[in-house]
């Protein structure tokens, strides 16, 4: 029986442990945090619950597969609730667009803005399906540590015009600027700028249409809790508050690891579920291939995230589960987020109101929220100690003006996470929210490989590896691991 250490228990690490256990590996998990789940934690304040991790659940079948590996029915563990709408987009002219439900309802919503774009949307959806069949079915579920695999896929990528960015691809079908914004923001969910992210990520439109968007009762932390039960039920040992200090590589093989300053040698494989940039810059150091030295030296990292959590003593019943609030600037704001060395004075925000679906997230007649603002990573801006309070105040004022009436007087508690927290708590390089940006030059073979070239028994899963960030990305990185380990 092969013995495998999984270092890092984010969703990708948990999924890897389960999948390897199902093929008869003896698996042990080490994680530096007090609880497994990576960013998918839950914080409870006076009866208000706050998910700290991913909240948009697409492709729930990938979770179902993990339970099915052990002849378990996920419905006995997790209750996924389909959402409708998937998102509500609020524009700077105070109009809004409900996106989700049936294809017909989406078309009718689009007609409120542009009758011509209703036909354009259907054509865009067909294009998204074609991209999905290549970009998801062939790329996301297939390893790319061998360059010959990349060569085989190049003709398909050229055919799909993957060198085009997401915004330009959407604009080919949509003329109304508000709808263009709504259908271009998906790359931000995986750390990319719509004006630089490869149009491969337009597959998200078909993925959403195919599987819908869901919310698990109890939140994303409930998924983690139930996966933890599955781990324990199958005798997978979990060691929390255990940090990786060192990997010792000799003759292209990891021969020992140092965890909590204790050397361990009794393993066959190492699966690393963490930011690969941190791994290559701070842990592997000199034992790095030319390809990975070049990538690590020239890497384009994702934006940072500022997340404000708050509870209110009233209910905002007209606010849906997921909202995107656009300011007037779009291209210019995105440029500032990904390039400027300062915080912008305006915002485009994602607002999460879980109490729209699960009333247990707050006391009776109250609401639980978090609002996420994309911000420059720490390589660009690193003055949160002096700016956080002012930035928080401006966001609350903005939400009160745009959507949440009398918010300031209705907030009962609030706390935040800045890029500093992402760097300190999760070892995210420069506090990035999603590790590498999903540009064409950082995708597939050009991304960090799942099977490393540095050691024959060292494997990578998670947001910074192939196929990329987001729950489907990290779950698929664990899935393809089964075929290469």
Topology:
Layout: E1 3-7, H1 11-22, E2 26-31, E3 42-45, E4 48-51, H2 61-68, E5 80-82, E6 87-90, E7 96-99, H3 103-111, H4 115-140, H5 147-159, H6 166-171, H7 177-182, H8 203-211, E8 214-216, H9 220-233, E9 237-240, E10 244-249, E11 254-259, E12 262-264, E13 269-273, H10 276-283, H11 290-298, E14 304-312, E15 322-325, H12 331-339, E16 349-352, E17 367-375, H13 384-402, H14 407-410, E18 411-417, H15 419-426, E19 458-461, H16 471-481
Parallel strand pairs: 1-2, 1-13, 2-9, 6-15, 13-19
Antiparallel strand pairs: 3-4, 5-8, 6-7, 10-11, 11-12, 14-17, 14-18, 15-16, 16-17
Helix pairs in contact: 1-9, 1-16, 3-4, 4-8
Beta content: 15-25%
Name the strands of the widest sheet in spatial order: 7-6-15-16-17-14-18
Structural class: alpha/beta
Treating each run of at least 4 consecutive H or I residues as one helix, how many helices? 16
Span of the ends, CA to CA? 13 Å
Low-confidence stretches: none
The named CATH superfamily of the largest domain: FAD/NAD(P)-binding domain
Work out the number of β strands: 19
Residues in helix, %: 25-40%
How can the largest sheet be summarized? 7 strands, mixed
Shape: globular
CATH-level-2 architecture of the largest domain: 3-Layer(bba) Sandwich
Output the CATH class name of the largest domain.
Answer: Alpha Beta
Mean pLDDT: 95
- Overall tally of structural domains: 3
Instruction: Please tell me how large the radius of gyration is.
Output: 22 Å
CATH topology of the largest domain: FAD/NAD(P)-binding domain
GO biological process, one term: carotenoid biosynthetic process
Protein name: Phytoene dehydrogenase
Family: Belongs to the carotenoid/retinoid oxidoreductase family.
GO molecular function: oxidoreductase activity, acting on the CH-CH group of donors
């Amino acid at each position: 029986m092969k013995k495998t250490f999984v270092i890092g228990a984010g969703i990708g690490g948990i999924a890897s442990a389960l999948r390897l256990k199902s093929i008869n590996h003896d698996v042990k998990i080490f994680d530096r945090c007090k609880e497994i789940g990576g960013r998918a934690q839950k914080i409870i304040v006076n009866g208000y619950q706050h998910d700290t991790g991913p909240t948009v659940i697409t492709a729930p079948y990938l979770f179902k597969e993990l339970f099915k590996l052990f002849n378990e029915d996920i419905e006995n563990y997790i209750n996924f609730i389909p959402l409708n709408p998937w998102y509500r987009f609020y524009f700077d002219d105070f109009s809004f667009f409900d996106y989700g439900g049936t294809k017909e309802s989406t078309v009718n919503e689009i007609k409120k803005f542009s009758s011509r774009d209703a036909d354009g949307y259907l054509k865009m959806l067909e294009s998204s399906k074609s991209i999905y069949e290549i970009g998801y079915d062939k790329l996301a579920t297939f390893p790319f540590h061998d360059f010959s695999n990349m060569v085989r896929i190049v003709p398909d990528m050229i055919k799909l015009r993957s060198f085009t960015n997401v915004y330009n691809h959407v604009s080919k079908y949509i003329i109304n600027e508000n709808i263009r914004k709504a259908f271009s923001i998906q790359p931000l969910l995986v750390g990319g700028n719509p004006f630089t992210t490869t149009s491969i990520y337009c597959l998200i439109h078909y993925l959403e249409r195919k599987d819908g968007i869901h919310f698990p009762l109890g939140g994303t932390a409930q998924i983690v809790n139930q996966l933890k039960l599955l781990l324990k039920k199958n005798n997978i040992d979990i060691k929390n508050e255990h940090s990786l200090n060192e990997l010792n590589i000799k003759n292209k093989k990891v021969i020992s690891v140092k965890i909590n300053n204790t050397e361990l040698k009794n393993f066959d494989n190492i699966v690393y579920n963490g930011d690969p940039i941190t791994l290559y810059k701070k842990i592997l150091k000199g034992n790095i291939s030319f390809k990975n030295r070049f990538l690590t030296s020239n890497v384009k990292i994702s934006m940072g995230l500022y997340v404000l959590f708050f509870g209110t003593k009233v209910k905002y019943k007209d606010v849906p589960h997921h909202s995107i609030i656009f300011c007037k600037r779009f291209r210019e704001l995105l440029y500032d987020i990904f390039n400027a060395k300062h915080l912008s004075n305006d915002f485009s925000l994602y607002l999460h109101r879980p109490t729209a679906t699960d009333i247990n997230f707050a006391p009776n007649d109250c609401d639980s929220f978090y609002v996420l603002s994309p911000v420059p990573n720490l390589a660009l801006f690193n003055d949160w100690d002096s700016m956080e309070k002012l930035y928080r105040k401006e966001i609350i004022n903005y939400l009160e003006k745009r959507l949440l009436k009398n918010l300031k007087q209705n907030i009962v508690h609030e706390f935040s996470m800045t890029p500093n927290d992402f760097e300190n708590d999760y070892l995210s390089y420069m506090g990035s929210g999603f590790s590498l940006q999903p540009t064409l030059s950082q995708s597939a073979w050009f991304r960090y490989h799942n099977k490393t070239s540095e050691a024959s028994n060292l494997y990578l899963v998670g947001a910074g590896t192939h196929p990329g960030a987001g729950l489907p990305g990290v779950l698929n990185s664990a899935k393809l691991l089964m075929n290469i380990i």
